Amino acid sequence: MHFPAEARIDLAAIRHNVALLRERAGGTEMMGAAKADAYGHGLVPTARAVVEGGASRLGTAFVREALELRAGGIDVPVLSWIITPGEPLEEALRQDVELSACEERTLADIAAAARRTGVTAKVHLQADTGMSRGGAPLAAWPGLLAAAARLRAEGVVDVVGLWSHFACADIPGHPSIELQLDCFDGALKQAEQAGLGDSRIIRHMANSAAIVTLPRARYDLVRPGIALYGLSPIPELGDFGLRPAMTLVAQIALAKRVPESSGVSYGHLYTTAKETTLGLVPLGYADGVLRHATNRAEVLAAGRRRTIAGRVCMDQFMIDVGDDPLRAGDEVVLFGPGDRGEPTAQEWADNLGTITHEIVTRIGARVPRIYTQVET
Ligand SMILES: *Cc1c(COP(=O)(O)O)cnc(C)c1O
């Protein structure tokens, strides 16, 4: 079905980024974070490229995302880390999805599902080492360990991982980083004392920013997300050799001459300075071109950068190309790796006061993802 815009995903770039990050992490085993539709890149094809590139595991926020990976034929270990009451735990166990637990209630739910299905649950216990998001607070950690050790002795739960997450790894030198690492080391020591210290239990903490800055955070496994997709986890330190995988393009739907002083789009926030050619770009805030990009963000059209002219609408926005030639069907590039002079997702993020994670994950479901460099 025709849609006048697409997100082109360069799977060779993904494989390159995985290999580069593995090297950067000294060969440590890798779990690729594939949540949120693989950061907007399209879950199954992208996750497959992450595995082809060298990740031996995948991680998702929700069980539903892990089940989608299984339905797509991906059979590497997958961990899901946001477990809410009512989660389809039995289905998760039957599909060999590993589950995170940060409180005893979750462990009890998982154990119940394991007893009902007869499948031993593979569980990663999460410690809150200072982010105060997911994870067991320090005071509750020994209780969680003891409960897990009991369920393990019973044979319903296998503890396969111990993990935590950084709050400020993208701010090198932030005092919380070393504190979280020390805290995690303490949590691991307590696990050992609780009988959960065998070497087959994998310990993991590092997101993309930690992989590129903190060798101490490698442990047994690293968990990159944004860097897999070629976007810098710490833009102030450069691109680390990563290659952006997504290029967002649209076809001009309409090009027309308008007179001087024409007010453009809702609210007339842009007015033509002289007689000029306007182009209609058929992507809007419903597709992830944030309304805040009005009169701000740039695109590449008719050989040059153009600032969005006037209000971004739900399905469309306008550009002003002056007297340059522009016709319906011409390609406009919103962002990409930058090779052809187009803006990057990083430039969009900087321009809009956000991070690249939000730029790529917001690309709407109606925009087709088209894969290039598919491994055969
Ligand atoms: C998203 C996420 C990651 C990856 O984070 P990046 O900053 O994108 O590298 C790793 N671990 C967990 C638990 C996450 O939620």
Give a count of the beta strands, DSSP E runs of length 2 or more: 19
Low-confidence stretches: none
The first-to-last residue Cα distance is: 25 Å
What share of the residues lie within helices? 25-40%
In CATH, the architecture of the largest domain is: Alpha-Beta Barrel
The small-molecule ligands in this entry are: pyridoxal-5'-phosphate
The number of helices is 11
Give the overall silhouette: elongated
Task: Explain the layout of strands and helices.
Layout (H helix, E strand, L loop, with lengths): L4 E6 H14 L4 E5 L1 H6 L2 H11 L3 E4 L2 H9 L6 E3 L8 H6 L2 E5 L2 H14 L3 E6 L14 H14 L2 E7 L11 H19 L8 E5 L1 H6 L7 E2 L23 E6 L2 E5 L4 E2 L5 E2 L4 E6 L16 E4 L2 E6 L7 E6 L8 E5 L9 H8 L3 H6 L7 E4 L4
Parallel strand pairs: 1-19, 2-3, 2-9, 3-4, 4-5, 5-6, 6-7, 7-8, 8-9
Antiparallel strand pairs: 1-10, 10-18, 11-14, 12-13, 14-17, 15-16, 16-17
This protein binds pyridoxal-5'-phosphate.
The site of pyridoxal-5'-phosphate has 13 residues, from α9.
At a glance:
The chain is α/β, with parallel strands linked by helices and 376 residues long. The chain is 30% helix and 24% strand.
Overview of the structural elements:
This protein is α/β, with parallel strands linked by helices and 376 residues long. The chain has 2 domains: 11-228, Alanine racemase (TIM Barrel), CATH 3.20.20.10; 246-372, Lyase, Ornithine Decarboxylase, Chain A, domain 1, CATH 2.40.37.10. Helix content is 30%, strand content 24%. It is built from 11 helices and 19 strands. The strands form 4 sheets. The chain has an 8-stranded parallel beta barrel, surrounded by 5 helices. A 5-stranded antiparallel β-sheet has the order 11-14-17-16-15, with no helix packed on it. A 4-stranded mixed β-sheet has the order 18-10-1-19. Strand 12 and strand 13 (270-271) form a beta hairpin. Helix 1 (11-24) crosses helix 3 (43-53). The protein is elongated and about 80 Å long. The model has no long low-confidence stretch (mean pLDDT 97). It binds pyridoxal-5'-phosphate. Pyridoxal-5'-phosphate binds next to helix 9.
